[in-house]
Amino acid sequence: MTKQPKAVWAVAFSSMIAFMGIGLVSPILPAITEQLGATATQTSLLFTSYLVITGVAMFFTSFISSRIGARRTLMTGLAIIVVASFGAGASGTIEGIIAFRAVWGLGNAMFISTALSTIISESRGSTGAAVILYEAALGLGIAVGPLVGGLLGSIAWQAPFYGASTLMALAFILLAVMMRGPEARNAATSLPAPFKALANPTLLAVAMVALFYNIGFFVIMSFTAYPLHFTAMGIGLVFTGWGLGLAITSVFGAPMLTRRFKRTHVLVGALTLLSLTLVGFALLINSPGALVAMMVLAGLELGIMNTVLTEVVMDATDLPRSVASSSYSGIRFLGGAISPPLAAALASAFTMATPYLMGAASVAVAAVLLASCSRLLAHANEHRPEPVAGFEVEAEAEPVSAGDDRNP
Asked: Span 226-241, mean pLDDT?
């Protein structure tokens, strides 16, 4: 973990900053609703527009990165996010912010999918160690994002967007400095490869589990700011505790459990506990203190889920990891896109507890689906050899830049 090439650390740090963008808006949702005269459903579209475009674009990232190189794909994604986050802050309407968040999602897709495959291919050690590093970056980003959003949001709702633009510009400079070197010939992945990959029953099963799981995940992330009734700073601190719990179990909890139990068993257990926790949210909806406790508990469970599920999708098939990552991530983020507007609509039609019950049911479906596919996912419980780059690849992969950097 500590003896990785500099390119791996650069991508991991940039990933942390990129993931800050997901939770950055959580603390300022009530302020945007109030100051721009928006409805809860409209503000939920700040997540949905971002996640829909992220999910759709994920299917094309392996095609793009295989032609222009991992480094250029990463830096193009960061550049798009810099422009989009600044544009969101400069926008004076909810419709404008929604549009810029969609553009933000495009940059996010180019960066995140390529970052995962880059860290795995460039890191020293096992796939599991690389995934832990990536998920640690995810957890820390999710933890720090709401805190930054709360701190800056207490000044003005626009400030978190400008802050994100500045941080992403710093990440761009970091990658430009630490991933230097001439671009080399890349493995060319065909455009339909990620769609064809879903014909693989193992990958499709894991992707569908991720879709239902992410519905529950984003109920917590996109909706919990409303029943808390805290200030932007208070909401930011709660989400920071949630993200820290996620980061801790990503790095320490998941490896400890997978050393003792099969990965599929760990996932079924974590999904079951998460479903019960979402029921707890619904039952304790009128107690802000209890909701804070539920947030921390959910963060601990989500950290285990994210790390182990990513390990499974990377090891369960012999597909090239850039292709598997594109397919899996596309389905996963589309599941997240469904959740925010559905949660807002259910809360408006019924009660504030209803979105959590919906999330609990969705996560329970994921647990049942995973348990029913245990034989199909048997290989994911073993340490598999590195996959052969033979799926829709037109040329052998070459180093993406000088030194330690190699194209995923």
From this structure: 85
